[in-house]
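step=encode ok
step=design start
structure_in=
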């Protein structure tokens, strides 16, 4: 007789009740009731919370001034909130935590190093690998972002999109569990940006990290995310959240023309216009009275 358990056996086993209860996985990243003001007293967050489940792709959408950069600084652990806490895999964040990876708007490559050496540079600083292991790992991630053939090129010999891919490979080579992406494709033209959006999803599907992607581009947020968090102008906190239930894998050709894609896009456009109206009302009391009579506030 086989030693394997079959499903009906499970019903006959006496298991403690707590064992049978399915626990949802702990959040990969959780921001719990944080408050933060700059030294000049300008308050950006007040009892602000958000979380991301393991492997979730969360987009943070909001106009300029809503606190996106401040939030990133807090998530990195370089800046501390005055109240509340930020946890990464249930432990408090700090700048030393290697589970966090960043991709910024500017690729910030060393101009005198090849693509391969740029990717290897981060590994030299952070990973306990021999020189040949570093090269192997750097090549592995250049391959993943589709740039193996460009490994020996200098940054000025690469297009803006390719440079951003090298920057992505440099971060991914450190194998972070949580990726913070701060408007990484904002400087690219629309065609390159759409292509990079598709590439991001392909890589994410392969590696499965938790991603927090900051953008002010509604289409980008809908295309990429499982969930979009809309921020109010600081210190307004979260305006609302929207789950994006578009099928995966997503592609520019198929996904962007789905009626549901346009519905999500229109819904978010409406929410952003509410955010803008609220912020203008804050600086203009007369506009505030008009909005009140029109039940916007
Ligand atoms: P975003 O990245 O969404 O544009 P920021 O996080 O840069 O927003 O800024 C949020 C708010 O905090 C804004 O009102 C901004 O003017 C203010 N702010 C940003 N940096 C500082 C600072 N160093 N001192 C005081 N206020 C700041």
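sequence_out=
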């Amino acid at each position: 007789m086989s030693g394997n358990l079959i499903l009906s056996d499970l019903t006959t086993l006496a298991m403690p009740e707590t064992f049978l209860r399915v626990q949802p996985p702990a959040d990969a990243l959780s921001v719990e009731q944080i408050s933060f003001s700059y030294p000049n007293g300008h308050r950006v967050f007040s009892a602000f919370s958000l979380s991301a489940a393991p492997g979730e792709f969360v987009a943070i959408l909001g106009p300029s001034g809503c606190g996106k950069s401040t939030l990133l600084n807090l998530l990195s652990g370089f800046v501390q909130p005055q109240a509340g806490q930020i946890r990464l895999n249930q432990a408090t964040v700090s700048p030393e935590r290697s589970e966090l990876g960043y991709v910024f708007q500017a690729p910030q490559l060393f101009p005198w190093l090849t693509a391969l050496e740029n990717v290897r540079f981060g590994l030299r600083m952070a990973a306990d690998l021999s020189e040949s292991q570093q090269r192997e790992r750097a090549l592995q991630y250049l391959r993943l972002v589709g740039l193996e053939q460009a490994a020996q090129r200098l940054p000025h010999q690469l297009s803006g999109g390719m440079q951003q891919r090298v920057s992505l490979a440099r971060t991914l080579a450190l194998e972070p569990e949580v990726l913070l992406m701060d408007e990484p494709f904002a400087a690219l033209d629309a065609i390159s940006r759409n292509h990079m959006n598709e590439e991001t999803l392909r890589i994410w599907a392969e590696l499965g990290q938790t991603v927090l992607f900051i953008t002010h581009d509604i289409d980008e947020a809908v295309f990429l995310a499982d969930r979009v968090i809309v921020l109010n102008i600081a210190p307004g906190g979260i305006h609302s959240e929207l789950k994006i239930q578009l099928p995966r894998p997503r592609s520019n050709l198929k996904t962007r023309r789905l009626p549901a894609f346009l519905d999500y896009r229109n819904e978010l456009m409406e929410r952003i216009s509410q955010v803008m109206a609220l912020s203008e009302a804050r600086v203009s009391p007369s506009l505030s009275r008009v909005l009140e009579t029109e039940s916007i506030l």
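step=design ok
step=annotate ok -> DSSP finds eleven helices and ten strands in the chain.
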